[in-house]
């Protein structure tokens, strides 16, 4: 077992070091705590069956919404958490905290917050997005990975970005906020986190 872990670690180091040289400035601007949360979320998503592109797209949305900062988990706000859940209108943050408490989980944890989102993600995709959740989880490009979660879950309408690959199911011309930035962040996170997939697949 020790040899297997050493092999996995060496493989990860040899693979990820060259691609990180190409990374954008956004990853470098995240603090160590934010980078750790991004890694934890990406690793969970991979274990849950999401492709690297879907995982990076979800992380890119979280990065745009909160920068992976834990400051959004407290205080008086209309939107809370790493995914900026709507509290003022739909009381999603309260529902998330109650769900976490009922299941003995820490609502401040980014993976716990996504696990709650997963409890409604099936309905969100079938209601809002032009692709199924199964197709989204298996997607093979960053744009689909980012737009799918933006359209199905974040639903940040009212911007200037018209999705290219995943449309609003009821209104294909619906525009969203900062879609191009979400994709840019997702690409940067993909570059930095895709090496985790090798470690996860080998261990």
What does this 3D model show about the protein?
Strand 1 (79-80) and strand 2 form a beta hairpin. This protein is mainly alpha-helical. A two-stranded antiparallel ribbon has the order 1-2. The chain has ten helices and three strands; from the N terminus they run H-H-H-H-E-E-H-H-H-H-E-H-H.
Separation of the first and last Cα atoms: 9 Å
Give the ordered list of helices and strands. HHHHEEHHHHEHH
Biggest β-sheet description: 2 strands, antiparallel
> How many individual helices?
10
Q: Estimate the global geometry from the Cα principal axes.
A: globular
Helical content (DSSP H or I, runs of 4+) = 55-70%
| Computed structural class | mainly alpha
How many beta strands in the DSSP annotation?
3
Quote the beta fraction: under 5%
From the alpha carbons, calculate the radius of gyration and give it in angstroms: 17 Å
| Average pLDDT score | 88
The low-pLDDT segments are 3-23
Strand order of the largest sheet: 1-2
